[in-house]
Amino acid sequence: xxxKCRVLEASASASRPARTMCLSPxxxxxxxxxxxxxSAEKYLDVTSLSMPSGVFRPAFINALxxxxxxxxxxxxxxxxxxxxxxxxxxxxxxxxxxxxxxTEMRKAGNLGETIxxxxxxxxxxxxxxxxxxxxxxxxxxxxxxxxxxxxxxxxLISRPVSDLSMEVYGPIVGASQSFVDSLWAxxxxxxxxxxxxxxxxxxxxxxxxEIANPLVPTAASGSIPMIAVGRMGTFxxxxxxxxxxxMIRSAKYSIDFIVQDLYGLLSNVKIKDIQxxxxxxxxxxxxxxxxxxxxxxRVIQSDTDVGVNDYTLFKFYNAQKLLxxxxxxxxxxxxxxxxxxxxxxxxxxxxxxxxxxxxxxDQTRWDKQKGYGSHAKLLxxxxxxxxxxxxxxxxxxxQEFGVIVADQALTRQLQKAYWEPIWNVSQHSVAQCN
Length: 434
Prior knowledge:
Elements: E1 4-8, E2 19-23, H1 28-38, E3 43-47, H2 56-68, E4 75-80, H3 94-109, E5 119-123, E6 125-126, E7 129-130, E8 135-138, E9 142-146, H4 152-155, E10 165-169, H5 171-193, E11 201-204, E12 226-231, H6 239-250, E13 254-258, E14 264-271, E15 274-279, H7 284-292, E16 296-301, H8 316-333, H9 344-351, E17 352-356, E18 378-381, E19 385-389, E20 400-405, H10 408-426
Parallel strand pairs: 3-4, 4-5, 13-16, 16-17
Antiparallel strand pairs: 1-2, 3-8, 5-11, 6-7, 8-9, 9-10, 12-20, 13-18, 14-15, 18-19, 19-20
Helix pairs in contact: 1-2, 2-3, 6-7, 7-8, 8-9
């Protein structure tokens, strides 16, 4: 990657100006998150899978020090599934996690003994369902949301994973705030109904209690049609599922995905006598019906080593075989007849292009140790509407959030900036369909 020496805004704390550093283009990501956080004047909400790590951690701490030293500090709520992903919440109480943050804030911002702003930290996690949304909302006016966890690894390293988030303003942010408030309502229930619920909530100053939902007015106007969609997993309704399914049902000629995986690991199937744990995409029926209508499907997915600790659950060529096989079976059950006397297999093969993510056409890996990974959750329908958010298309019953944009001009901008550069090189590696 090319480096360039420039000012990194996220290096500024309450006591230290931003520094000039020699950075890669990807390091701009830190400034996008930092700017959204420090723009808050009254309220800041952050949701994520777990606490920031790697180079994201000091940027996050720096932003909190700046907020703490504003003339009137905003309130801050941080909602996670837990402090760390591979730990259980009774062993990582939210109060202890918050006190670590305060220790780091005092050092980074040269702060006094007493924190000035009111901070809450809460966990939402129960029965294999946990928060997976990634949202930053400032004053119900400005939001950054999408697929990015605030982790240095896997993004700001020499072999980064690709991901996608979006920054929005206007009335959509107020609607999104309602989803965050719903997550906090579940946190209240967890801490009161769970014998170990005390681990699920913390506050600074210690004992200062719960922060109320933001009362500032929502922005009055916007110019682009969009809708906020979330799901509560085991905690409540899941309209995000219905919204994406409706998008796919509306498709007349094209559906494009950039994802980590379409297939997940749940139920037993066999491929060539090899036992595999497989689960169809949760929108499988809608995808199959679209293919039966003659809609073209293009999928770009991860191509790292397979495993839950990496960014691929199924190799792309195995996922493509599963998809075609499952669609053929679905079509048979529906008594579908392929046009022109073709076999269903040949017909669906003509409609599906399934590729591993690539950045250079003739290069398949970063190096011998690492393939290319994708963590994006992008759906584009008919070149006219798209979804960006945290919701994977393989089956998992988590809390998720995203935004659907129904604007052809903005969809075209996204395609030119993101989809097309990736597809133009990835299409050379599409899985063969037999």
